[in-house]
Fold this protein.
Amino acid sequence: MAVVEAVTSAPGEKRRLRLANPATLEPLGELEIDDAIHVREAVDRARKAQAEWAAADFAERELHLQRALRVLVARSDEFVDRIVEETGKPRAEALATEIATSCDALQFYAKRARHILAERRVPLHLFRTKKLRVVHRPLGVVGIITPWNFPFLLALNPTVQALIAGNAVVLKPSEVAPDSGRLVAELWREAGLPPGVFELVQGDGETGAALLEAGVDKICFTGSVATGRRVAEVCGRALVPCTLELGGKDPMIVCADADLDRAARGAVYGAFSNAGQICTSTERVYVVDEVADVFTRKVVEQTGLLRQGSGGEFDVGPMIRAEQLAVVEEHVGDAIAKGARVLAGGRRNPSCPGFFFEPTVLDDVTHDMRIMREETFGPVLPIMRVRDEDEAIAWANDSPYGLNANVWTRNKRRGIRLAKAIESGCAVVNDCTIAYGVTESPFGGVKHSGIGRVNGVQGLLGMCHTQAILIDRLGARSEPLWFPHSARKTEWLRRALRWIWGTSLGRWLA
Ligand code: NAD
């Protein structure tokens, strides 16, 4: 449900937004906005329910995830229909990236979280008279704020990780795709989650801002850099930890020895799947001169095969809303004005009623164009020719973003070396946009692309606070460092220092 317009409401009534299908522009009803009081009540309910949920053993929490998995598989067709209606994305993409990836997350954490979060004894190298145990305890109530581009997966996945670690969750999905938030709530209800452990609040930025101020113990935010900055400011003032999964401007580097057929297909998929509205979309290509003509020709050929539309089988859907379409038009217009050549697309699709922009390939682009510097978040693939891989790396790193990147070469060692040279939270060799879907792979950005990680061991640990428990083993009457201090003790400490950390001569003297 994409087109969001404010509806005039009478005094005392809840604010409402009017929603419409982004592909057909048909009305899809209205969304009532939850206010700050409603949000605080939801957080209070979650806090009350959390203690019992945290006290439950892993087996019980795992059972709820397994039940949710069964519900999701059983209702997958209906869920796909509803996600497609509100986003316009192709059914195959909704099934693979929203539903299958969510199924995997449910199963992965149901099976592995117990091991990842297990209490551990850590042997001590110095304090031999003590024992150390490291335990991972839930944070309490986690507030999760999500965007519209993968409205189901990005709402469910952090929720799964928070819940299995023993937290309660208050989810605020995007106002542009609120039905996916409802689907997440339905899933947990059918899985029999105890009341209050998962709470849904609906609304726009005001509701999100209210959640930041409602006394939660952590915020998991996924969205734009601009909003992420505001979230970080509020969390910083309240000293509430936050994970920020923000925007990207993923570079693709095509080496001279790349498999150009695979690279061209990968470029087209990376740039145009979900109509380019992926934080890890391929947003800029650097191809070395000697293969640039062949690579570009293949990209244009593959782009020409794409079917754009809605309903039935198609490859590329609409942009989700008018504002996003306007950004794409501005970036393409700016690039053309500064000398870029349009090899495919370059305009709105005149044969579709909704927010469709044609899959667009641009050549002769330079780094003074917005299309190479700002997140476009639309179906545009700008290609820049470079002398060699070193130049490609320099341009790839000439960006405030650092989310994901991809490198194409037949030489895996070179691929890994180049991947390491890119300033990004994730990098992929000979593939693209898969990073978030690989459950073991910690996902997140550097630079303006975010703080913290979701997924894998790091993501799960981010839903906990780590407590160190030190236990005395001997039970002696006193400890050497306790009071009283004396000259003898100081001398003893000096000798100990030389003995433990000094040179061989120092040890001998000690
Ligand atoms: P957005 O920042 O406009 O909104 C994201 C969420 O924040 C929405 O739920 C919105 O209602 C809420 N919000 C708005 N103002 C708020 C405030 N002041 N306080 C609290 N919450 C507030 O982003 P969007 O347009 O929905 O999503 C697109 C952006 O998300 C792109 O930049 C994309 O790259 C990024 N994204 C990042 C990832 C990732 O994992 N790194 C994944 C998907 C999308």
